[in-house]
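Changelog note: in this version the structure field was regenerated for every chain. One regenerated record is shown below for reference.
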Amino acid sequence: MSDAPATFARPIPRPDAISQGFWDATARGELAIQRCPDCGNYQHPPRPICHACGCAAPVYARVSGEARLVSWTTTYHNVLPGFAAALPYACMVVELVEQKELFMLSDLIGRAEIASGLRFGMKMRVVFPAGDGEGPVLPQFAPAEEQQA
């Protein structure tokens, strides 16, 4: 199977009032996660209240984009609208370094050769696929050592 073309058109996120801060940051090429101003807890996905202390005013804080790989699988069968052209791709769970159990989902579209080299605990770093510059993009995570080469 061949890798998806680099020009694969990813689905466009649809922000709501709660997730808008996350998507505004991705449009700038930044990763921002909700953080509670009262207890300092990070949370993702975004919620209207802090799940740790109940504060009703979580804010978005920029994070490093560094993570470690917790789990993954390579997908060969399409289950998501708009992703058929991307097969195969790796679906991953990463844990951001800012806080234990602060997880994000990610993928490696068009990167089957990298997916075969994934290993538990490997360092990952956020990347933002080229978009049209007109709005939010789905952040991805890739092996950190690949980005230093």
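Spot check on this record: The chain has two domains: 15-63, 64-149. Residues 64-149 form a domain with the OB fold (Dihydrolipoamide Acetyltransferase, E2P) fold (CATH 2.40.50).
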